[in-house]
Amino acid sequence: MPCEVMYEKADEISLSLRKGAILGSTEAAIKILKLISEASRECKHEFPSFLIKSIPQFISARPTSQVMLNLTRMFLERFLDRSREKGLDEALIETPAIVERLINEINEVREVVAEVGSRRIEDGDVILTHSFSSTILQMFKKALSRGTKFEVYVTESRPVGEGKVMASSVGKLGIKTTLVVDSSVRYVMKNIDKVFVGADAIAANGAVVNKVGTSAIALAAKEARTRVFVVAGLYKFGVETVFGELIESIVLNDPELILPKEAMPQLAGKVLIKAPLFDVTPPEYIDAIITEKGLIAPQAIMLLIKEIYGWPPKVKSIEALLNEVLRG
Q1: What is the rounded average pLDDT of the residues 157-183?
Q2: What is the pTM of this model?
Q3: Number of structural domains found in the chain
Q4: Given Cys at both, which of 64, 131, 200, 220 links 186, Cβ 3.0 to 4.6 Å?
Q5: Same domain for 139 and 287?
Q6: Burial (CB count <10 Å: 0-12, 13-18, 19+), residue 243
Q7: Which GO cellular component terms are attached (predicted)?
């Protein structure tokens, strides 16, 4: 029974990921890690099977999320290390501690990224942000704590509309906040000094995968000569893209995301619905990526990957790690 509950929770998380219902890619990854920790306690005898089934399920539900891929890889590497050193039973006992350390490490990185980013905010700045990012929210808090006065424009971020949550959260900090429709970005850009956006993934060539609309914002910013900053820890870098692997996107087709309720009877089933959740912004439209190592030019990502992982990058695939779990 406890194992059934764990699988049900995994299915619920996967569905939420597919619909874009969990705000923030890092939050989604942390939610998965916490479920893995819970499963190690509640479903001990089936835990390897749970990992083998659930991790690919999570990744396929949100294939753009590099943080999910990287954090599950880091967990599997550490879990397998414990299993080899001390045996499976001891690795199971240590799983909650492994997860807790991973989450703490990520939160520490986010704090540093927020601190670095906050120092790019100056008195009088008018900032535009898109979608929901807890790291950007923390960045705003840090800038406020130093007495910096600025205002923020937030796009509604359709099709899910999480920009409304972001705008509400920013407004609660006491910052003058304006919520705007996505299609008005070019119109409002003349008022904007800086753009700060998060990222689901950063490719080896410096391209950024983020909530759909990010590339249009970057394009409008380029035209207006407004600087664009991507706020993301190094755990969002896609090492696999070095080898030419593509980052898949998600396209929703739920009529309720786009069609007004009164139009549903007339149009539902007669009009095709395509609501992409993510897009790719080329590196030439990004001024800098704000990381825990400071500001990095998108074109320098490959050098950073080489420094961290060696060349060619030595990183095991999720599939290879899960095969090790299967072999016990």
Answers
A1: 97
A2: 0.91
A3: 2
A4: 220
A5: yes
A6: exposed
A7: cytosol
